[in-house]
Amino acid sequence: MPAANLDNRHTSSSSGLPVSTRITRRVTRDLSVASILRTTLSAPLSTASPVNVTLPESRPPSPLSPLPSPLLKSVPPSPETPPTPLTPLSESSLGSPPSLVTISNSDDSDNEYIPSYCNMSVQTTTLLKQNTMAIYIGEQGKPPVITPGKLTPDLLFDFENGAYSYFSFKDVKQEKEVSKIAGGLQDGHIQTWYHLNRAAVDAAGFPAFMKHIREAWLEPGWEQEVKLAILASHQDNNPISDWIMLLESTNTLLNGHVCKLLDADLRNHIQSHVHADTMTAATTAELHLIAEYEKYKRGLKVVDDA
Fold first, then answer.
1. DSSP designation for 305
2. 167-213 pLDDT per residue, tens
3. Whole-angstrom Cα distance, residue 279 to residue 9?
4. CA–CA separation, 101 vs 112, rounded Å?
5. Do the domain assignments include residue 71?
6. Where is the composition biased (Pro residues) (predicted)?
7. Exposed site from 60, 217, 236, 263, fewest CB < 10 Å?
């Protein structure tokens, strides 16, 4: 091979450019890259602006992103509109039933039996034990009501008083008294009896109506049981006035019966069944010498409150 061709092979590239020219371009490129890196690294961090990189639409969702529900169609929130906060349910709303709906009766008809259940109150007014599911419901200007259940002497006493109050408030004529309040006794047996004998029962009047109810639907011998409840009662730690009130209200259930205690009988029972401390103070004050029942009660109250 000639020597000229061998030198030309070593001094030229496949691109046809001389070797010296290619080296010059590579050095110039390296210097340019180094200059750019030096300028970038020497710039302050505060002047660097974030680069918004557009991700492709097919990117996988983040594990923290909520999955869309196919049953709920919601509009994506606007950047200017803050998200609506969720109102948590209170513990009382989760564990308690909804409030009862109060029914108000705008019609003042006497035949409407819509008592207000918010006026119900269960309190101890006699010495008798509460052994029935029946409840007395009374409201001013409305017929009295006893809900279905076992009738007791104190329930019927409250019903009778409520009926007289209703008669007076509404100025009910005597011949219409029974028909106005008979529906208040909601027991099915009583209602059946009344509807079968309505004409005769209405004509007999309200006192006869109550007498028959007591005779037919109270337990036999109830009068004696009421009297025994009075005679077995002690003051214990109750205030003397409260205990005497219970004695008298229980004795009132026996109105019209031979079992009812007279004032003298009540006085003797009170004197022998008061608390030991009250008895000592009453003896010191010589209250046993007071024969009149009302004066004796007032003296006991003064001694018991001292």
1. H
2. 999 999 999 999 999 999 999 999 999 999 999 999 999 999 999 99
3. 143
4. 18
5. no
6. 58-69, 76-86
7. 60
- Contacts for 204 with CB less than 8 Å, ≥ 6 apart: 178
Q: Helix, strand, coil shares of the chain as percentages rounded to 5?
A: 50, 0, 45
Measure the CA–CA gap between 248 and 244, rounded to whole angstroms.
6
Same domain, 296 and 259: yes
The answer to whether residue 199 sits within a structural domain is yes
CA distances from 167 to 144, 212, 284 (A): 11, 20, 49
Domain with 166, as residue range(s), is 124-217
The answer to whether 126 touches 253, Cβ cutoff 8 Å, is yes
Percent pLDDT > 90 in the chain is 57
Residue 155 resides in a domain: yes
pLDDT tens for each residue of 283-299: 999 999 999 999 999 99
**Which has more pLDDT, 204 or 43?**
204
Q: Which of 217, 250, 267 is the last residue of a domain?
A: 217
What phi and psi values does residue 145 have, to the nearest 5 degrees? -135, 140
Domain contains 6 = no
> Would the CA dihedral through 11, 14, 17, 19 be positive or negative?
negative
- Final residue belonging to a domain, choices 169, 188, 217: 217
Q: Are residues 207 and 260 in the same domain?
A: no
